[in-house]
Design a protein that fits this description.
This protein has 8 helices and 8 strands; from the N terminus they run βαβαβαβαββαβαβαα. It is an alpha/beta fold. The protein has a single domain, classed as Aldolase class I (TIM Barrel). D-xylitol-5-phosphate (DX5) binds next to strand 2, strand 8 and helix 7.
Length: 215
Amino acid sequence: MIKISPSVLAGDLSCLADEVGRLAAAGADMMHLDVMDGIFVTNLSFGMPVIECLRKHTDAVLDVHLMIDRPERYVERFLAAGADILTFHYEACEDSAATLDLIRSKGRRAAISIKPKTAAEEIFPLLDRCDMVLVMTVEPGYGGQSMIPEMLDKVRAIRKEADRRGLKLDIQVDGGINAENAPSAVEAGANVLVAGSAVFKAENMREAIDKLRGK
Ligand code: DX5
Ligand code: ZN
């Protein structure tokens, strides 16, 4: 089943809980929350306090994407704030295996992400510890960029390796995903699609989510 995780950063952050309510009503499966620290990526967004407040207003699955340097320093605080799925970047982390294990030990879903220049094979040794892998389809940091089609080869390679090892792994793609390119991402093996602009710039949110799902 294809799951849609709209990137809330593209919405009106002054009324985050309403935006999340609107997304849930429109059929979103989870809420993608982009955390940026101005170091790992040049942009800044929001952190634990915002997620903690939002948690009190929604039962939706909170899919937290950490684009921060040395995420292991903050993992426990993001889990305490209410993240259901916690994704961090392989490139930013000093001990990815221990960080994935820590997330799982708290009963949450653990995910690792790779930037466009990182080869899929680099994270193969970590796949058994992951519930999800996020393959970035743009350079992380900003919404509204165009998807880099070559990234789907990495999705294909990870799906193939997971199948070969009998792992039940979610593969998420994030960056420039829209109704036109979503089928190619799904064909490559992705089953969780993040979309910011494609959902928030659409006139009808439900229609946009349905279209991403291929309906
Ligand atoms: C980019 C973020 C994305 C982004 C998605 O660094 O991780 O989640 O906001 O937005 P679109 O779909 O507009 O590329
Ligand atoms: Zn993201």
